[in-house]
């Protein structure tokens, strides 16, 4: 049987690096759209549907769980059938579920549609990672991924203000309509402009999937990059899940002020991806994340130090927030490209397995913060410091050794 790391037959890329980066930004940016734009509308839909806050929060957690679990289905299908048919099927499901969200009359119905929305979204993200491996070797793929994630950063910057404006002008159904429009745009682009990128479909029988996943999970390169991205994303999700309680509840910002903070953090992430593109060329993947880890550790350490000393100033939270996001802008493109690098024939399966890990990390972080948040800065700060230290340890020890 051929090795998972056996080089696939290489053919000229069917699209330019710029077009590939645009496609990746659109597909991976759909995740940011799905999670960020709805946040300002949560209080409105909670009131309109007569729901409890815990029920409204299920619209996020159910989406995350479905997103993680269904990647394990989409990934192998993308290796066997091709990226394009899986994208068309997944984005069609996403668009159908988005329309269902807009028309939902009960919170239970909305939660169910959000679960289906997460399942469709999983196809877009799995195939986006796999497309990078289809078209480029690891180093070139990381540069294209960094360019794509710069575009994703632009989407992330625009998301919070757009969600706030949509909630104010169009109500919660209009906000969900914006998400549906984004899904329609992605589906249209794939249908009319995105070619098939898979060099050769996998011929492995379905019964071999458990063995394939086991081989992928044991691969040291996959383990190193997946662990790095998971630790860095754990910090990002901590900031997303806890920031409204801290910036609004503790520091007294308005919802618009919190939106501005999130936009600034997204700009910092964007700047990190831009610097990452230069450092990859100069220092390679491992060298780029080794340097990026200093920003991650500075962000987590400064926020924890401020919380421990009782410093309740906006700058003492915002500066570490921005520093950590800058570091994430370096870890994300390198890690996403590194995860699938050893698996030209199983990039979809590798992408799916990594995606499941990230979703479980996000779910666990959210559950922990739900128990830990106590009206102070400490839970967010100390949790961020934990993820920052873990990210730095992986970047400085595990990645140089195994990747």
Tell me what the structure shows.
The protein has 403 residues and is mostly helical. The chain has one domain (17-194, 208-402): Growth Hormone, Chain: A, CATH 1.20.1250.20. The chain has 12 helices and no strands. It starts with 16 loop residues before the first helix and ends with a helix.
Give short descriptive properties of this protein.
disordered N terminus; 83% helix; 403 residues; Growth Hormone, Chain: A; mainly alpha; single chain; 12 helices
Task: Give a summary of the structure in a few sentences.
This protein has 403 residues and is mainly alpha-helical.
Count of runs of 4 or more consecutive helical residues: 12
CATH class wording: Mainly Alpha
Described by the principal axes of the CA atoms, the overall outline is globular
Q: Supply the CATH superfamily name.
A: MFS general substrate transporter like domains
* Tally of DSSP β-strands: 0
Average pLDDT for all residues: 86
Please give the CATH architecture. Answer: Up-down Bundle
Per DSSP, what share of the residues sits in E-state strands of 2 or more residues?
under 5%
CATH topology assignment = Growth Hormone, Chain: A
Q: What's the alpha carbon Rg, rounded to whole Å?
A: 20 Å
Give the tally of structural domains. 1
* Major sheet attributes: none
Q: Could you say which structural class the secondary elements and strand pairing correspond to?
A: mainly alpha
**Order of SSEs, N→C?**
HHHHHHHHHHHH
First CA to last CA: what distance? 24 Å
Poorly predicted spans: 1-10
Determine the oligomeric state from the structure.
single chain
Helix content: over 70%
């Amino acid at each position: 049987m051929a090795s998972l790391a056996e080089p696939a037959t290489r053919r000229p890329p069917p699209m330019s690096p710029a077009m590939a980066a645009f496609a990746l930004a659109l597909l991976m940016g759909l995740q940011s759209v799905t999670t960020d734009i709805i946040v300002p509308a949560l209080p409105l839909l909670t009131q309109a549907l007569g729901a409890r806050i815990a029920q409204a929060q299920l619209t996020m957690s159910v989406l995350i769980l479905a997103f993680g679990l269904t990647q394990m289905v989409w990934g192998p299908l993308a290796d066997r059938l091709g990226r394009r048919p899986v994208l068309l099927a997944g984005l069609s499901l996403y668009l159908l579920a988005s329309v269902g969200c807009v028309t939902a009359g009960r919170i239970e119905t909305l939660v169910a549609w959000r679960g289906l929305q997460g399942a469709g979204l999983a196809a877009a993200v799995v195939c986006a990672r796999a497309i990078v491996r289809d078209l480029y070797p690891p180093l070139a793929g990381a540069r294209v991924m960094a360019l794509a994630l710069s575009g994703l950063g632009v989407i992330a910057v625009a998301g919070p203000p757009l969600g706030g404006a949509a909630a104010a002008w169009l109500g919660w159904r209009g906000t969900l309509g914006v998400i549906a429009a984004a899904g329609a745009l992605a589906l249209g682009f794939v249908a009319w402009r995105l070619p098939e990128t898979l060099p050769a479909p996998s011929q492995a029988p379905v019964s071999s999937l458990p063995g394939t996943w086991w081989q992928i999970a044991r691969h040291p390169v996959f383990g190193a990059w997946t662990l790095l991205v998971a630790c860095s994303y754990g910090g990002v999700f901590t900031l997303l899940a806890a920031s409204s309680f801290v910036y609004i509840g503790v520091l007294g910002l308005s919802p618009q002020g919190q939106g501005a903070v999130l936009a600034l953090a997204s700009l910092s992430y964007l700047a990190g991806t831009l610097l990452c593109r230069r450092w990859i060329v100069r220092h390679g993947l491992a060298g780029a994340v080794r340097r990026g880890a200093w920003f991650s550790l500075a962000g987590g350490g400064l926020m924890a130090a401020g919380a421990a000393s009782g410093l309740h100033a906006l700058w003492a939270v915002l500066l570490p927030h921005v520093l950590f996001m800058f570091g994430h802008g370096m870890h994300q493109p390198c890690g996403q490209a590194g995860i699938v690098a050893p698996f030209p024939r199983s990039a979809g399966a590798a992408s799916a397995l990594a995606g499941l890990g990230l979703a479980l990390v996000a779910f666990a972080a959210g559950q922990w913060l739900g128990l830990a948040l106590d009206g102070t800065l400490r839970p967010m700060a100390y949790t961020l410091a934990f993820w920052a230290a873990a990210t730095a340890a992986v970047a400085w020890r595990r990645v140089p050794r195994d990747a």
